[in-house]
Automatic annotation (TrEMBL):
InterPro entries: Aminotransferase_I/II_large, C-S_lyase_PatB-like, Class-II_PLP-Dep_Aminotrans, PyrdxlP-dep_Trfase, PyrdxlP-dep_Trfase_major, PyrdxlP-dep_Trfase_small. Its cofactor is pyridoxal 5'-phosphate. The lineage of its organism: Bacteria, Pseudomonadati, Pseudomonadota, Gammaproteobacteria, Vibrionales. The keyword Amino-acid biosynthesis does not apply. GO terms for molecular function: cysteine-S-conjugate beta-lyase activity; pyridoxal phosphate binding; transaminase activity. Residues 35-384 form the Aminotransferase class I/classII large domain. NCBIfam families: C_S_lyase_PatB. Its EC number is 4.4.1.13. Pfam families: Aminotran_1_2 (PF00155). It is an enzyme of class 4 (lyase). The keyword Ribosomal protein does not apply. Keywords: Aminotransferase, Lyase, Pyridoxal phosphate, Transferase. This is cysteine-S-conjugate beta-lyase.
Amino acid sequence: MENVFNTTHNRKNTSSVKWDFMTEKLGIDGDDLLPMWVSDYDFQTPPQVLNALSHRIEHGIFGYSERNDEYFDAFIHWYKNKHNVTIERDSIATIHGVLPGIALALQILTSQGDGIILQTPGYGSFANIIQLNERKVIENPLQHDDNGYTLNLEHLDSCLQQGAKAVLLCNPHNPIGRIWNYDEIEQIAILCERYDAWLISDEIWGDLTLPNYHYCSALRLPTRFHSRLIVATASSKTFGLSSLRISNFVIPNAKIHHLFLRKMSSLGLDVYNSLAMCAATEAYKNGEIWLAELMTYVQNNLNYLNDFLTQTLPHITFNMPKAGYLVWLDCHSLNISDDELQHRCTKAGIVPSMGYTFIQGGSGYIRLNLGCPRDTLEKACIRLALALAL
């Protein structure tokens, strides 16, 4: 299977945001730029999924479609088998992506001007969704030392005590690849219960745990916490299906589940993409072996980068992630501004995500996407050596 992941596919001129829209999205132009920014990977989706999609396309009719028993059963079985989580079918709401679902949840659960808590550094699009829905971003900065990042529960308590209405948790956390453990999640849930706030847990990275690690879903919490809990999931990040736009929100609170579905209907979002459902179903049914081999390949990429930095750029460090294919490189030793850091990277021909876009605590970092063939990573390392030398 490694040969499959070693294969380099030309993604240029495929309308790929990552490869074709650096000028429009980042204001960066160049024919030889190596994009390591957007968090999708440069591997084909599992062959079983490609075959299922081919058969569905051969049918040739793409009328209005609905989720069937096979769709729900595949999703429920995946979470039970892989994550030891039992999901009730009548708690599932399917929507066209995690961010749209989070936006709907915020509209249902909170009011304009309400505070929504994010752990930072964190995914910048969360802040955008909060602000565009006229809510207020409340930052709960993560604590960082040589051993990695930890939650600041005392500060979180203070934020909730002052009236924040929801905690938007990313588990595993983007950009640092940290998996929050059961005790940490329970402490957040206890605080949400104490202050009558909501816990919205984005677990889109949960399937992408690296070898020998396991993520803990918030759905494993005792049922007493479920009335204030929404969990967002998707097959898209796991199996390279991002543009097919399908995700599942698990909403144990029956009243909120009903309001969520009603809000979807009010916006005309209660129609489902037949190809997206086909791909997600097949991935959940038959993608586990492929995924395990993918994550072994990603771990080897992480090890390769770690060895390279140790030997060539020892002043550039990172905490080894436990999930995902992203690394959060600490470039503070260069003692340069974010603008200069970005200029150096562009000049060297590599395009990471800049740390300052991940809100507070991101300045001086870059996020690098290692979801790529080894040949691409080797080229990236050569360019990093030019960009990040002292």
